[in-house]
């Protein structure tokens, strides 16, 4: 096992240690930090192509209020590097990003152990199970399995989510300094997804206090109507916080007290086994 790569970041006057590939990756820079505008434009185009499922040169030009020639140069440059592809005048994100995504996921330690435990948990519960981490102040799913009874929601490995709208995100927020939570909210806000989404800062901080006491977080239709989830934190060997493991499913089936108790015991056991396996793997 490779050694830890410890670094230090400065957040609102306080220093925190983080390990490469853990949730203590730097959150987004301040809004007023200087950037390269042309590079920003290229990334914005890529994100637009992802959200739209593909677009023509004219559509890209109209979306970003640029000349067709400018849109063409951006698109052709990214095509030359293999990051987008074109067919019949329609540009879309290329499969080269699969390689980058796989490489990014490999940066997180204990991938095989995490993958095995997520699969085991999915088979045992029959539900959607995921392992997520925080990076740049957002939640990212790095392992995922759909059980036999799982609802097929729009969720995938690599998906980027707002922290405050998920059980996994909230359980991670409850484990980091409040000053860092404040900075995340300042940058990303608390956007609403459903009527149950927490959009008030003070209300969120009160919920995080409760999560710290219980050691788990719930998502009561806060990201998707009809979806309920439970998440628990997973710690790295040496008690360094690492990420979150969650179980999700339809609220009508999972939110009964008896079912919640059963899921809690199952999830707690899976997290405990994963932490033991990670500890054992480095000794």
UniProtKB/TrEMBL annotation:
Alphabetical keyword list: DNA-binding, Transcription, Transcription regulation
Domain IclR-ED residues, every copy: 96-280
GO BP terms in the entry: negative regulation of DNA-templated transcription
Chain ranges of the HTH iclR-type domain: 36-95
Keyword Transcription tagged: yes
PROSITE patterns per record: HTH_ICLR, ICLR_ED
Transmembrane parts of this sequence: none
GO molecular function: DNA binding; DNA-binding transcription factor activity
Short name of one Pfam family: HTH_IclR
Annotated PANTHER family: HELIX-TURN-HELIX TRANSCRIPTIONAL REGULATOR, ICLR FAMILY, HTH-TYPE TRANSCRIPTIONAL REGULATOR RV1719
Stated name of the protein: IclR family transcriptional regulator
Organism: Natronorubrum tibetense GA33
């Amino acid at each position: 096992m490779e050694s830890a790569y410890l670094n230090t970041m400065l957040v609102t006057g306080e220093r925190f240690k983080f390990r490469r590939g853990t949730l203590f990756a730097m959150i987004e820079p301040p809004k007023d930090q200087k950037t390269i505008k042309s590079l920003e434009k290229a990334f914005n185009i890529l994100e637009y192509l992802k959200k739209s499922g593909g677009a023509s040169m004219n559509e890209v030009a109209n979306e970003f209020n640029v000349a067709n020639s400018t849109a063409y140069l951006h698109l052709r440059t990214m095509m030359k590097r293999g990051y987008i592809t074109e067919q019949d005048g329609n540009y879309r994100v290329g499969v080269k990003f699969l390689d980058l995504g796989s490489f990014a996921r490999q940066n997180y330690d204990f991938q095989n152990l995490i993958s095995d435990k997520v699969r085991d948990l999915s088979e045992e519960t029959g539900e959607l199970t995921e392992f997520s981490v925080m990076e740049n102040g957002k939640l990212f799913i790095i392992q995922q399995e759909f059980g036999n009874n799982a609802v097929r929601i729009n969720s995938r490995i690599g998906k980027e989510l707002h922290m405050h709208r998920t059980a996994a995100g909230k359980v991670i927020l409850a484990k980091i300094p409040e000053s860092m939570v404040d900075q995340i909210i300042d940058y990303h806000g608390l956007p609403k997804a459903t009527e149950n989404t927490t959009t008030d800062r003070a209300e969120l901080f009160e919920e995080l206090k409760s999560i710290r006491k219980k050691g788990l977080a719930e998502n009561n239709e806060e990201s998707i109507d009809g979806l309920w989830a439970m998440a628990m934190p997973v710690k790295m060997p040496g008690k360094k916080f690492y990420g979150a493991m969650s179980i999700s499913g339809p609220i009508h089936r999972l939110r009964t007290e008896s079912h919640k108790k059963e899921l809690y015991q199952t999830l707690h056991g899976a997290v405990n086994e994963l932490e033991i396996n990670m500890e054992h793997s480095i000794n």
